[in-house]
Predict the 3D structure of the following.
Amino acid sequence: MESTRRSFYSAVIAGLGALMTAALAAPAAAYLLFKPRSQKQSDYVPVADLSQIAVGKPEEVVFRRTRVDGWRVVNEKSTAWVVRKDDQHVVAFTPQCTHLGCAYHWDDKENNFLCPCHTSTFSIDGKVLSGPAPRPLDRYVTKIDQGKILIGSEILRA
C-alpha cells in the first residue's frame, strides 16, 4: 500500500484528535472514578469556655470551622447563639431565622429573640412566639468537654 501525503495528514490529524480526547477525558474519569482525599476533621469545634457564659442569658459567639466540600477545604467564620441552661447543658442556635434566613438578635427588654426582617419572635428555648416563622430555631449539636463548649457540624431542625 502506497502512502500518500493525504493519508499521512489524515493519520496525523486523527492522532492529534485522539490525544486531545485523552487529555480531556482523563481528568473527567479521575473525577468520576476516584474519591477525593478525605481530610479527617473533628466533628466538634470549641467555641467558648463554659465559665464565660452566664446561665439563662443568650450570648452570640463567633468561631471558625473548617468545611470540606469535595476537593475544596474552606475555613469559614460562623456564629451561634449559645444559651447555658446549667453546668452540664447548653443549647446553641444557628444564627438564621427559620422564616427567610435573616439574622436575629436577643432583645433584653422583651426577653426573647427578635428577627427584624418580619418581626418573628422566639423564646429563649427557640420556640416561635409570634410572626411568620414556620418552626422553632434550628440548633447545633453541642457537648461540654473539660469546661469548653463544643459545637458539632450537624444541625437539628425542629
